[in-house]
Design a protein that fits this description.
231 residues; seven-stranded antiparallel β-sheet; six-stranded antiparallel β-sheet; 35% strand; globular; disordered N terminus
């Protein structure tokens, strides 16, 4: 029979794991600076070739959710993206099944909305893209890109095949580029803001919590039986 003390340790360990799993693996809140983020332009083709890199975002200490944020102005007729710093890259396999979350808004809009990949991930010789269908408003908007296979396409935003679990995991395990859209409009004139970028691990399934509750119930039953025997 499992000792009550051991069961307590197991339950507490599980609770600790749950709190860790639901937390951010890496984040940029832009409270004091641009946190190493840069900008680039790409041709938006299935090869997603970078045309211009090393663009410098503008940092604001007050225009954020709630503090600072960065903005990137569209410099040319290519597609413009925020480019994540090294801390978001490398082995991010722990984020598989989790999500990439961030806040964004337009500061200056073009004359018409144009849909393009909202997030681009590169790694293991693959390029995966995530699209949204709604236009970006002027107010801060929270976006959540689930890191699950059916949410990502391989290379092409609209006609590419959906990524498999193996492909998504391979990319996250050797991530060498993470881009977030800084161009939601045409023609060349928009400015897009970004804040609170978070790479999150998956939250435990409800079944896991059910197991925890079952364990606690067993612990209570053992304690009651011990008390009865002592009496």
């Amino acid at each position: 029979m499992i000792r009550p003390s051991l069961l307590v340790v197991c339950c507490l360990t599980f609770l600790s794991y749950s709190a860790t799993a639901a937390s951010s693996l890496v984040s940029s809140t832009f409270d004091s600076d641009a946190d190493g983020w840069t900008g680039l332009t790409t041709d938006g083709s299935p090869s997603w070739t970078s045309i211009t890199s090393g663009l410098t975002p503008t940092y604001s200490s007050s225009d954020g959710m709630p503090a600072g944020s960065i903005t990137l102005a569209d410099p040319d007729w290519q597609w413009t993206y925020f480019s994540a710093p090294g801390k978001f890259l490398g082995n991010q396999s722990a984020a598989f099944g989790g999500s990439l979350q961030f806040d964004s808004r337009y500061v200056m809009a073009g004359t018409s909305y144009s849909n393009e990949a909202e997030v681009v991930l590169k790694g293991a010789g693959l390029t995966l893209v995530y699209e949204i269908t709604n236009s970006l408003p002027a107010t801060w908007t929270h976006l959540d890109a689930a890191l699950v296979a059916g949410a990502w396409r391989v290379a092409d935003t609209f006609s590419g095949t959906f990524a498999t679990d193996a492909q998504l995991l391979a990319v996250l395990s050797n991530l060498n580029a993470l881009w977030i859209n800084a161009e939601h409009f045409t023609p060349v004139m928009e400015v897009i803001a970004l804040d609170n970028v978070n790479l999150l691990a998956p939250v435990p399934e409800p079944e896991s919590y059910a197991m925890l509750l079952a364990g606690l119930s067993v612990l209570g039953l053992i304690a009651r039986r011990r008390k009865t025997r002592q009496e």
